[in-house]
Write a structure and sequence with these properties.
alpha/beta; Aspartate Aminotransferase, domain 1; Aspartate Aminotransferase, domain 2; 2 domains; seven-stranded mixed beta sheet; five-stranded mixed beta sheet; 42% helix
Length: 389
């Protein structure tokens, strides 16, 4: 659990580190990547040990979703989220974006409209558009606390009569909101009123800070089961995104049948590494996660205390995730100006707000899941660059 340990990831075929030259024009040996949502920390020892065991066996055949795998997921949901999940409600897929794509095929038709609350994780809109569905973006509203809220009345005004699905990011990426019980209840009522499927992307459900509690949608609104699909994963929680495995939880039997049909049509079977790593993470990674959350909270405090002292910058208060959402609109600086001045000077690669859809312009998303020494260096670079604007 050496979160302060610095790992050289350059030359390891890391998208986060080895793509900064082609995507940002930055020098890999000078850059600090703060864009892709993976952490610069080693995974729990339980995960490393299972990979070592698999390597020693030397046989990498097909795997199945066995009882150990299912019980590991169910046990985790009950321990961490007080949510009782039935083993037969689980499907294994190749990541959460893959799950969203399958759900779109299972529950909607070409030219149907799908609602998202923007700005939101950019892969969702990409998959919706690629599937031949129409995208309805309903902008989130920044409330008095400086955090995002959902305006369902405004959403109603954007409907086109063809909508069949709503995709909710919970906790929210990039704003870091943990939706409250009453907010989830209102979303469920809205979906029921408009006959919508809800896909609840809960991939960041474990990365929640101590003053807040993530409530799984199904636990918050059990009556939503007939139109609800929940997506979770170990990938963000334990920094094992490269295994590309996610959990789909569907309590309603009819919805399960539709999802399973598309799985069979696409010939999607579980990853042997994903099954083993997920089981090991849930059974042996809890203490690692507890210490990670303390470390991330300290990083969050470091980041906000520096950024919010820079005139013209505002970091949205973070309730979950390790992804800080910074508003720089008060500087009246265009994205191209930011790239020329700040990015080239700091050699820091952040995610551009424009890619997250409506309401994202004039924002940057910074990944702070890194050793404090690197984060401190990044903050000093940013402070010096923005103070000279």
């Amino acid at each position: 659990m050496q979160f302060d340990k610095i790992h050289n990831r350059i030359g390891t075929n890391s998208e986060k580190w080895d793509s900064v030259d082609t995507l940002y024009g930055l020098s890999p040996d000078k850059a600090i990547p703060m864009w892709v949502a993976d952490m610069d920390f080693q995974a729990p020892e339980s995960v490393t040990n299972i990979i070592r065991d698999m390597a020693e066996r030397g046989i990498y055949g097909y795997a199945r979703e066995d009882d150990n795998y299912r019980q590991a997921i169910c046990g985790w949901m009950e321990r961490r989220h007080k949510w009782k999940v039935q083993p037969n409600s689980l499907f294994s897929v190749h990541g959460i974006v893959n799950a969203i794509a399958i759900a779109i095929q299972a529950y909607t038709k070409p030219r149907d409209s799908i609602i998202i609350f923007s700005p939101v994780y950019h892969a969702i809109s990409r998959v919706v558009k690629a599937s031949g569905r129409r995208l309805i973006e309903s902008p989130l509203v920044k409330g008095p606390t400086g955090k995002y809220t959902i305006d369902l009345e405004a959403t109603s005004n954007r409907l086109d009569g063809n909508e069949t699905m709503l995709i909710l990011c919970s906790p929210h990426n990039p704003g870091g909101r943990v939706w409250r019980q009453e907010e989830l209840e209102q979303v469920a009522l809205f979906a029921e009123r408009h006959n919508l499927m809800i896909i609840s992307d809960e991939i960041h459900h474990d990365l929640v800070y101590s003053d807040f509690t993530h409530i799984p949608f199904e636990k918050a609104v059990p009556s939503a089961q007939p139109f609800l699909v929940t997506l979770t994963s170990t990938t963000k929680t334990f920094n094992i995104a490269g295994m590309h495995t996610g959990n789909v939880i569907i309590s309603d039997e009819k919805l399960r049948a539709k999802f399973k049909k598309v799985l069979l049509e696409l010939a999607i079977s579980p990853s042997s590494f994903g099954i083993e790593m997920t089981t090991a993470a849930y059974n042996g990674g809890e203490e690692w996660l507890e210490r990670l959350l303390v470390y991330l909270n300290q990083n969050k405090t470091m980041f906000d205390s520096t950024i919010n002292k820079i005139k013209g910058l505002e970091s949205m208060p973070l309730e979950a995730t390790y992804l800080c959402w910074v508003d720089y609109r008060a500087l009246n600086m265009s994205l191209s100006d930011y790239k020329k001045k700040i990015e080239s000077e700091t050699q820091i690669a952040a995610s551009y707000g424009e890619t997250f859809g409506m309401g994202g312009d004039g924002h940057l998303r910074f990944n702070i899941a890194m050793p404090k020494k690197i984060l401190d260096s990044a903050l000093n670079r940013l402070k010096n660059a923005f103070l000279n604007v």
